[in-house]
Design goal:
single chain; alpha/beta; six-stranded mixed β-sheet; 2-enoyl-CoA Hydratase, Chain A, domain 1; 2 domains; 265 residues; four-stranded mixed β-sheet
């Protein structure tokens, strides 16, 4: 069942999405993609969830698309609707985890190849276990990166030259190389992967929810805008954030030398 192939749990104010098809190295099916999308929609509506972690059960994060059955055609489906959407709407519809208005951490255990490598790029921050392996293997199957993250986000994360090398060759790199090129923030022993991801998620929830949400929107929309448009959007968000109840709480808590009690409004 797809519901069992993708698990969703909560730990305090952190939502944890776990690919749970370990016997197939968490290879993704249409049903799993639908489950993921359903979970993401629930997370967007859940004000108690402040950060999200994506990971996999077993010895692999995900071996990519399950090509033994019907191949998920995520990009092709969205391309047909592209003209009906703004660039931001299109980006959020195909970069699944990028659409979550909260920090998203990808905790990479074992292999993450193909669409799984794309999924990791959809996330805001990546942490790798020592067992992690990562590869944009699409060209080795005669394809280009299916969600476009490998050709758009990857050059912005690791630089154009290194992104070209990874995408054109289809090489699979290990965790230390992932760290060296800046693809991941940390490499930790496998047993410490989830505790490290949870600790980072808690750190990312220290700020005011609306401020974090607006900052994330600014960062990703900035990829689509001119400097002038970005500055205008940044000024608008700054002025808007200064009118929230949380900004007053942030100032008061600073002077009272205590942790802020955010209301998210």
């Amino acid at each position: 069942m797809a519901e069992q192939d993708v698990l969703y749990t909560k730990e305090d104010n952190i939502g944890i999405i776990t690919l749970n098809r370990a016997e197939k190295l968490n290879a993704l099916t249409h049903e799993m993609l639908r489950s993921i999308n359903s979970i993401i929609e629930d997370i967007k509506k859940d004000g108690k969830v402040r950060a999200v972690i994506l990971t996999g059960n077993g010895r692999a994060f995900s071996a990519g698309t399950d090509i033994s059955g019907e191949v998920p055609q995520t990009a092709e489906v969205e391309i047909n609707l592209m003209k009906e959407k703004t660039s931001t709407e299109y980006r959020q519809s195909i970069w699944f985890f990028n659409s979550i208005p909260k920090p998203v951490i990808c905790a990479i255990n074992g292999a993450a190849v193909g669409i799984a490598a794309e999924f990791s790029l959809h996330c805001d921050i990546r942490i790798a276990a020592e067992s992690a392996r990562w590869g944009q293997v699409f060209v080795l199957r005669g394809m280009t990166p299916d969600t476009g993250a490998g050709t758009y986000l990857l050059p912005r994360i690791v630089g154009l030259s290194k992104a070209c090398e990874l995408v054109f060759s289809g090489d699979i790199i290990d965790a230390q190389e992932m760290l060296r090129i800046g693809l991941v923030s940390k490499v930790v022993p496998d047993a410490e992967l989830m505790p490290t991801a949870i600790a980072m998620a808690k750190k990312l929830t220290r700020g005011a929810p609306l401020a974090v949400q607006m900052a994330k929107q600014l960062m990703y929309r900035g990829l689509e805008q001119t400097m002038e448009a970005h500055q205008e959007a940044a000024r608008y968000c700054f002025q808007l954030s200064c009118k929230t109840e949380d900004v007053q709480e942030g100032i008061v808590s600073f002077f009272e030398k205590r942790e802020p009690r955010w209301k998210g409004k």
